[in-house]
Design the sequence.
């Protein structure tokens, strides 16, 4: 059974870079049938897609975040990562990683999520 | 930017049918997925490609789409179905989520 687990600092200072890692277990990140995605949810608010990554290197980002975000992969560790630069309080959210099916375009499963707070 | 519109809240009595709508001006050309999120948990896929139900999702969950509106229907709603529900579609290579609907089972 595929499982995803987010990890990283829970507190980031304004203007710094948010860095998170998603570890995939029970399946390979090199599977050609899937993309790998990051999605976030500010406290008490809805879901916002951040971007997708394909193991060949293709990336797709939310236009509203594109200038600040980068998603990369470490296939040797079966992990993919998110970096979000120049964060502000508006970037405070629960960050989820998820698998994205290439053919039917659904997100499943999702990781449990990790809360990142931007504060000095 | 592309938007999907959902009602903020829907209430239903146990055993009755709940309907949650999702509207967007490109839905006629794009499939919709629905996700269920219970408090403190991560979202779970309950419907994809407008009408398909993943294995393990109860049969009381169904989806439909007509024109620019997609609908998630829960028949014989149970207390355990109380949750936030989000629709999601694609605008080219960009994923868009609706604002979410809080389903209350009274």
Sequence:
């Amino acid at each position: 059974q595929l499982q995803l687990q987010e990890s990283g600092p829970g507190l980031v200072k304004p203007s710094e870079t948010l860095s998170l890692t998603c570890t995939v277990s029970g399946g390979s990140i090199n599977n050609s049938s899937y993309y790998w995605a990051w999605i976030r949810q500010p406290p008490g608010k809805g879901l916002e897609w951040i971007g997708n990554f394909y193991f060949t290197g293709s990336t797709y980002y939310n236009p509203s975040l594109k200038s600040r975000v980068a998603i990369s992969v470490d296939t040797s560790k079966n992990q993919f990562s998110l970096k979000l630069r120049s964060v502000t309080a508006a970037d405070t959210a629960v960050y989820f990683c998820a698998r994205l099916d290439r053919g039917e375009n659904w997100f499943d499963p999702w990781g449990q999520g990790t809360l990142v707070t931007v504060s000095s | 930017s592309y938007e999907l519109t959902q009602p903020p809240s829907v209430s239903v009595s146990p055993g009755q049918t709940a309907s949650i709508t999702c509207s967007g001006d490109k839905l006629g050309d794009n499939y919709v997925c629905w996700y269920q999120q219970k408090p403190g948990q991560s979202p779970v896929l309950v419907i994809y490609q407008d009408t398909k139900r993943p294995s393990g999702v109860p049969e009381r969950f169904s989806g439909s789409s007509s024109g620019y509106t997609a609908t998630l229907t829960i028949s014989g709603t149970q207390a355990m179905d109380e949750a936030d529900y989000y629709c999601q579609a694609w605008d080219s290579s960009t994923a868009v989520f609706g604002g979410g609907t809080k389903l209350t089972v009274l």
User: Anything to note?
Assistant: The radius of gyration of chain A is 13 Å.
